[in-house]
Fold:
Amino acid sequence: MVRTDRQDKILELIEHKDIETQAELTSELVKAGFQVTQATVSRDIKDLGLIKAASARGYKYLYGQNNDHNSRLLNIFKESVISIQTAMNLIVLKTMSGSANSACVIIDKLNIEGVVGTLAGDDNLVVIVKNLDLVDSVTTRLKNLMQKK
Structure:
């Protein structure tokens, strides 16, 4: 399984469970069939911009809800991306006029495995994927970003 699958699972886990520690998150990922170490989970937490916030049990991981910059970027992405299509190893995102560059920022910030780079125009952007085998997982990750609450 690739990093994007694992990171999508992390986001799913923290959305449905109050996970307090990296060890607890590592354990949940292993139960879900991922072979991970705590060091890998630590890097994923950093890549995803997860934060810890108070919960009924103590603390839990959240997806940047208190990180205004990441939250704004994600909202811009969700509100500006109109469609996603693939063409070989390229993923083309159609955006509202003037929004492509902002959408590129969040894609670049996520460091999605297999993404070689992005290129933005006014109302569309291209995500260049390293090889055809990774296109589906990158496309799924981008589509999931459009759905995040």
